[in-house]
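Hi U.,

Before I forget, here's the chain from the pilot set. I'm dumping it here mostly so it's searchable later in email.
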Amino acid sequence: MIADESPPQPSNAWKSLIGVGVFILVYLLTSSLDHKQRAVAATFAAAVVLWITEAIPLAMTALLSTVALVVTGALKSKQAFGAYGDQIILLFVGSFILAKAMEDSGLDRRLALWLLSKPWATRTASSTLLAVGSIACFISLFVSNTATTVMLLPIGVTLLKSFGKLQRGSPMGNSFLLMLTWGSSIAVGTIIGTAPG
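Structure:
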């Protein structure tokens, strides 16, 4: 039996204590600011430490930092927790749910394969790029552009592999990546496809 040579990792309790220590340290170092500014700075620093060390789950860190802003008096509870119920956040959550459903059902791949099975879509590299951009633009009408790009990236990589153009710095590879992002960003026909103001 081979002994484990890796150094012992600090427990999550110690990592959490580091976050508390950073909160206190930043609060003390920012004595020239007023109380609310000091509390926000200390909460932000502690949240960064907890995110980096992963002492607690990331979602818990986000909620805990919001609670800390309320407890320290930096923000009122309505102001602190109001952002969680903002209609733009709910809109993006809904679009990510749609993106996940499209990914699980394979609808995104079916759409891509249907379009790329057409002779006009694969005649030249430019027509293939235009076809990929059209797919991204169409899906982005119903799903946020971030989710669309993430969803179509594996398809773009697969296409580049099949063309033998997956090398780093390949002009076709760069063009594919840019077309995915641009195609999903120009769709402005629906509320989801329009960037929030």
